Amino acid sequence: MSEQKRIPQHVAIIMDGNGRWAQQHGLERYAGHIQGVESVRRTIKAAARHGVSYLTLYAFSTENWNRPAEEVNALMELFCKCVINETENLKTEGVRVKIIGDKNRLPGNVQEHLTRIEEQTAQGERLTLLLALNYSSRDELTHAVQQLARKVAAGTLNPETITEQSVEQSLYTAGYPDPDLIIRTSGEQRLSNFLLWQAAYAEFYFTPVLWPDFSDEEFARALDEYAARERRFGRVTNRNEERS
Ligand code: IPE
Ligand code: IPE
Ligand code: MG
């Protein structure tokens, strides 16, 4: 019997607490976002090292547009800078980047950078990095409903034949597995409009650590806790599965 630790295939992270980190250090909120990029870099490497196949990072929600324009603009600039600085490293590490969210509502230059990183990393086979940008679940589900309704209106889809799979295929995450583990930093214990459909059977890990302080050790702790959880998916414990 293998004693190997059960590793989640898909980890999703709500990277929260950049602003509070900056405040704690007497800095502007923007400095927290810059420091947060270091954690992103570290965590991508750690995920690949642990054998995680999919990593989703919540970077900007549709509600984050409601922040002061100064912060929103700074974040958009930071996304562009990251693409420019990180593409080569990601390619070397075998990371394939995909954006989930409504790209069309992002500034033109950000869209261009994102399309470029998706194209240039398309061959990555070690880890798929799903970047949730201008993402929210309700927005995603609204788009999915519109897409299905258009097909019904065009006469190419019979409403009676719509299944959970049809809905899934209309989401930004179409073709990717559901997250097994969702981590949120900064002590908040909520989803903030993240992967509401996909999280149906996810395990949750909440840590008070602020995102810029999220370390390899903290990530390993989350994986350890995940490995110790019993996932039942509505069934009763299966002794054979428990032993495998
Ligand atoms: C998360 O950190 C990053 C984004 C939402 C872009 P926050 O900016 O939300 O940090 P806090 O929650 O204010 O500390
Ligand atoms: C969630 O964090 C969004 C991201 C991490 C990108 P927020 O800081 O926006 O969430 P709330 O407002 O605390 O729920
Ligand atoms: Mg926050």
TrEMBL record:
Substrate binds at residues 17-21, 29, 33, 61-63, 65, 67, 184, 190-192. Mg(2+) binds at residues 16, 203. Signal peptide: none annotated. One of its GO terms (biological process) is polyprenol biosynthetic process. Its EC number is 2.5.1.-. CDD domains: Cis_IPPS. Binds 2 magnesium ions per subunit. Keywords: Magnesium, Metal-binding, Transferase. Pfam families: Prenyltransf. GO terms for molecular function: ditrans,polycis-polyprenyl diphosphate synthase [(2E,6E)-farnesyl diphosphate specific] activity; magnesium ion binding. HAMAP family: ISPT. PANTHER family: DEHYDRODOLICHYL DIPHOSPHATE SYNTHASE 2, DEHYDRODOLICHYL DIPHOSPHATE SYNTHASE FAMILY MEMBER. Homodimer. Catalyzes the condensation of isopentenyl diphosphate (IPP) with allylic pyrophosphates generating different type of terpenoids. NCBIfam families: PRK14830.1, uppS. Belongs to the UPP synthase family. This is Isoprenyl transferase. It comes from Candidatus Alistipes avicola.
